[in-house]
């Protein structure tokens, strides 16, 4: 079976020109694969480069070298070298990302924000909104909030909007950066169920979860990111 | 923010250079803009972004370089070879230009309805009821109250003038819109509403846009791609969130690190 994601020999460093050109290596020799239907967790202490790896896969961070191959619709795209239009098309159809914090256009209602990724994939507005409402309901977001922009919501409420927006389109590969950090146990269980349903449908998940219970519930395997510390021989 | 792949560029820019006497306006700028794509050109005052915009929109002649545009019939034209009449027709029909100051893009002494309807008449619509109907529906779309249709824009607020200018530009369903600091000079609350409106319209109509802004937050919300300019040259370009989250050029790092957090 073809891997959904294949990361090969990726390295990342930052050069801070405003700090006299100081060079900060982040990770090196990052290599792993993720199969369809699998949920893999990135482990390691804070600062080990877990979020950086997710950002490289999503295309927010450029890589110094290596390849990040994602099996898209019909073909395999190497994010490390793909142009902006190719990356955006992959994000629309194949690759989703739930960030730690919600960052969206101001003044747009929560249910429209949640529906948007599905509309972009070609669903009708009615269908997308119906699915958005169902997801927000499942995540126990009070209905009176659905028509409001999330700017004034609590951290946990914003994060549920973020999760619904991430899960709605059913992307074959979903990156999760501590999606449950500000959730209570009831809503964390909803996220666990969403991941389990996704896995059963053949979708793949790559996540960072500090919560050990969450990790135990969803992870098929854990990758220790400290193995990718720069300077450590591969 | 939908992007279609495997189609031809709408606008192709190759080595665009503009000097003002011995001074550089912008130098050796090259890029392709595709249908449905929003490209933000960012940089501080004097970086050459407005010169670039004016050269592209045919408002300034190039010193050297080439700009070609794919017409509705699929024929690719070198813009320098278009006659004045053809260029003006293109500007009125297939292109829009949203100025930072709405007074530069509106006719301030005719009614809001006429400002919108005028562009329709320019492409041959002569039916008064159709024109007024289109004008009304566009005013509604940009949230200008229908009962202001017969007022002239001198009595409008800055935000309302800017929304009217957008309606005037989009009524002919242009395929390419140039925007010069479209939210500059507006209150933040008005800005947010306008950004939301521009984003929705660009996505719904599937048009391409080139947005010049010094505001990186505007660029992040509106654009697919960013081009960073400094002293007339492009110093960095790429996917918008890549450029903003992982800036490489020293100047881009300076811009990104200078954003005030609220």
From TrEMBL, chain A:
Gene Ontology molecular-function annotations: ATP binding; ATP hydrolysis activity
Recorded coiled-coil stretches: none
Source superkingdom: Bacteria
Keywords: ATP-binding, Nucleotide-binding
Matching Pfam families: ABC_tran
Gene3D superfamilies linked: P-loop containing nucleotide triphosphate hydrolases
SUPFAM superfamilies the record matches: P-loop containing nucleoside triphosphate hydrolases
Signal peptide location: none
Sequence ranges assigned to domain ABC transporter in this UniProt record: 5-233
Similarity comment text for this entry: Belongs to the ABC transporter superfamily.
Name this protein carries in UniProt: Alpha-D-ribose 1-methylphosphonate 5-triphosphate synthase subunit PhnL
Species whose genome carries this gene: Afifella marina DSM 2698
UniProtKB/TrEMBL annotation, chain B:
Keywords: ATP-binding, Nucleotide-binding
GO MF term (any one): ATP binding
Pfam families with a match to the protein in the record: ABC_tran (PF00005)
InterPro entries the record matches: AAA+_ATPase, ABC_transporter-like_ATP-bd, ABC_transporter-like_CS, P-loop_NTPase, PhnK
Record flagged with keyword ATP-binding: yes
SMART domains named in the record: AAA
Domain ABC transporter positions: 11-256
Record has NAD as a keyword: no
An example Gene Ontology biological process: organic phosphonate catabolic process
Gene3D superfamilies membership: P-loop containing nucleotide triphosphate hydrolases
Family stated for the protein in its record: Belongs to the ABC transporter superfamily.
Protein name, as recorded: Putative phosphonate transport system ATP-binding protein
């Amino acid at each position: 079976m073809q891997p959904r994601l294949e990361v090969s020999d990726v390295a990342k460093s930052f050069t801070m020109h405003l700090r006299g050109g100081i060079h900060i290596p982040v990770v090196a020799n990052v290599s792993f694969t993720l199969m369809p239907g699998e949920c893999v967790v990135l482990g390691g202490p804070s600062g080990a480069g877990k979020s950086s790896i997710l950002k490289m896969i999503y295309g927010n961070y450029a890589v110094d070298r290596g390849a990040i191959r994602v099996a898209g619709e019909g073909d395999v795209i190497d994010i490390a070298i793909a142009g902006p239009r190719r990356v955006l098309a992959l994000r629309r159809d194949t690759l989703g990302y739930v960030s730690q914090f919600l960052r969206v256009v101001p003044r747009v209602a929560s249910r429209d924000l949640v529906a948007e990724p599905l509309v972009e994939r070609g669903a009708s507005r009615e269908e997308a909104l119906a699915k958005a409402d169902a997801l927000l309901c499942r995540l126990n977001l009070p209905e009176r909030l659905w028509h409001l922009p999330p700017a004034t919501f609590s951290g946990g409420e914003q994060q549920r909007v973020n999760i619904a927006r991430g899960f709605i389109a059913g992307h074959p590969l979903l990156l999760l950066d501590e999606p449950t950090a500000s959730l209570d146990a009831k809503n964390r269980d909803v996220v666990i169920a969403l991941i389990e349903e996704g896995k059963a449908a053949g979708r793949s998940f790559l996540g960072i979860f500090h919560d050990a219970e969450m990790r135990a519930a969803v992870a098929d395997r854990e990758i220790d990111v400290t193995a990718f510390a720069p300077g450590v021989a591969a | 923010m939908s992007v279609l792949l495997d189609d031809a560029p709408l606008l192709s820019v190759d080595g665009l250079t503009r000097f003002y006497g011995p001074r550089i306006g912008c130098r050796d700028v090259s890029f392709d803009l595709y249908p449905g794509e929003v490209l933000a050109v960012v940089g501080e005052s004097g970086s050459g972004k407005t010169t670039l915009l004016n050269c592209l929109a045919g408002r300034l002649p190039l010193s050297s370089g080439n700009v070609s545009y794919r017409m509705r019939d699929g024929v690719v034209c070198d813009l320098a070879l278009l006659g004045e009449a053809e260029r003006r027709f293109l500007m009125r029909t297939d292109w829009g230009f949203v100025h930072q100051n709405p007074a530069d893009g509106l006719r301030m002494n005719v009614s809001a309805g006429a400002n919108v309807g005028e562009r329709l008449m320019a492409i041959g619509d002569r039916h008064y009821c159709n024109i007024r109907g289109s004008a009304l529906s566009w005013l509604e779309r940009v949230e200008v109250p229908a009962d202001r249709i017969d007022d002239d824009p001198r009595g409008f607020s800055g935000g309302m003038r800017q929304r009217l200018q957008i309606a005037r530009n989009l009524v002919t369903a242009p395929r390419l819109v140039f925007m010069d600091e479209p939210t500059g000079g507006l209150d933040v609350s008005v800005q947010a509403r306008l950004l939301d409106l521009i984003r929705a319209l660009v996505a719904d109509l599937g048009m391409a846009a080139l947005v010049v802004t010094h505001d990186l937050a505007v660029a992040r919300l509106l654009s697919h791609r960013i081009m960073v300019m400094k002293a007339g040259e492009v110093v960095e370009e790429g996917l918008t969130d890549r450029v903003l989250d992982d800036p490489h050029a020293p100047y881009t790092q300076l811009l990104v690190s200078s954003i005030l957090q609220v």
